[in-house]
Amino acid sequence: MNNNKEIIKLGQIEVKFLLEASDTNGQVTMFEFSVPHGIKVPLPHYHENFDEIVYGLEGTMTFTVGEKVIDLEVGQSLFIPRGVVHGFNNLNSQTAKALATITPGLLGPEYFKDVAEIVNAGGPPDIEKMKLVFKKHGLVPVMNI
User: Fold this and answer.
1) pLDDT given at position 52
2) Model pTM?
3) Which of 16, 40, 79, 144 has its CA 20 to 30 A from that of 65?
């Protein structure tokens, strides 16, 4: 089991992995992520080869999944099937935190570390570099949803 509680910081967003693929024989990965209020997350995307389940832990995050806009609140869950374009923002007045489960476990800390390099470089993120990182890790960026 992964006892490494490293927090990966992507600008103001924080990600902490609880289970990595190596912990679950590749079946699932699980991480917590927190998004401060007012943060708009760039690059809506879809996953080619994995599904995602998100569970609200604190605050409210606004997800767009396909054509639906969903406010994910504490104790609510959301299923995002592979191939469905989605993105999220925190448009509310407090930090929001959620638990994400990826199955099969194809998305790990490496993705977030690669994104962090771009986001933490200063200035607006290089969208073309972000697109390459997304594609490398099985995410397909979509500019408008």
Assistant:
1) 97
2) 0.90
3) 16
